[in-house]
Amino acid sequence: MKLIHTIAELRAELGKFQRPSFAPTMGNLHDGHLALVRQARSLGDVTVASIFVNRLQFLPHEDFGTYPRTLKADCEKLQAVGCDVVFAPSEEELYPEPQGYKVHPPSELADILEGQFRPGFFTGVCTVVHKLFNIVQPSHAVFGAKDYQQQMIIRRMVAQMALPITIHTGATLRAQDGLALSSRNGYLSVSERAEAVQLSRTLKSMIAMLRAGEHNLAAIEQHAMHTLAQRGWKPDYMTVRRRLDLQAPQLDDLTHPDRLVVLGAAKLGNTRLIDNIEV
Ligand code: PAF
Asked: pTM of this prediction?
């Protein structure tokens, strides 16, 4: 496995291949990321993972400064799953000057849910992903389903910008109790870690209400928000949306559960967790 820090070296290395497959990450890798890299391996003739903590997608009060940088351990894990190339640029390499040109996804996709609570987040994500796509020029790229809105927005960006890349979504990996794997789970104390499973449990209870024929979405959402708040969480949203466009379902959608996804984001102590489950 090659560890490469510069765009020039990466281009030289990838010039030997036809169909790179790509898994972009911010490092601090867990089994969920490694599953994405394994999936990428099956898609191309060389597998590239990037590790870059992207300043552009963090708000000033968020955890950019403290986000764990664990390059050595990450490389060992990537080597073990058969990754061929790790691209880990410095900030100066990727952003040698302030990134004035940005990719702004449309408001109806990017200013709802995560974008409502993290303004500018998806502009930061699309800008870095577009730039990484230009650098790596992959044929295939893999994103995790845990970031449901992210993978949808990137899919649409690729389609609208006619980028010659097939986007794949990797299933969310969960701990035994059901907590979705996330780099941010590492911030949880022992007692918070035990409580954290309630986020996926509450999403499941929303699905149970839908399946039981409850069509009052506001009631389902309020019940979920209340359940978490009572346990000491600070929920941002717990909501039922259409898979297609993440908009509120119409009555007709409610009779087709395969059109629906439940999504949630909530803070437990200082840690903000997100999760989603397709109905
Ligand atoms: O999902 C992530 O880790 C990041 O948002 C990504 C796609 C690597 C862009 O920085």
From this structure: 0.97
39: closest CA among 88, 86, 82? 82
**pLDDT score of 212:** 94
Q: What is the pLDDT of residues 153-201, one digit of tens each?
A: 999 999 999 999 999 999 999 999 999 999 999 999 999 999 999 999 9
Cα distances (angstroms) measured from residue 225 to each of 2, 138, 242 = 46, 40, 19
Which of the listed residues 57, 59, 126, 184 should we mutate to test ligand 1's pocket, taking the one with most ligand atoms within 8 A of CB? 57
What separation in Å is there between the alpha carbon of 208 and the centre of ligand 1?
A: 31
Residue 118 confidence (pLDDT): 97
Q: In terms of Cα–Cα distance, which of 142, 134, 143 is closest to 164?
A: 134
61 in active site: no
Q: Which pLDDT tens digit goes with each residue over 74-120?
A: 999 999 999 999 999 999 999 999 999 999 999 999 999 999 999 99
Atom 2 in ligand 1: residue holding the nearest Cα: 25
* E strand intervals along the chain: 2-4, 20-25, 46-51, 85-87, 140-144, 166-170, 234-242, 260-268, 271-278
For ligand 1, say whether the CB of 26 is within 6 Å of any of its atoms.
Answer: yes
154 C-beta closer than 6 A to ligand 1: no
CB of 54 sitting under 6 A from ligand 1: yes
In 3D space, the residue among 20, 95, 115 whose CA is nearest the CA of residue 52 turns out to be 95
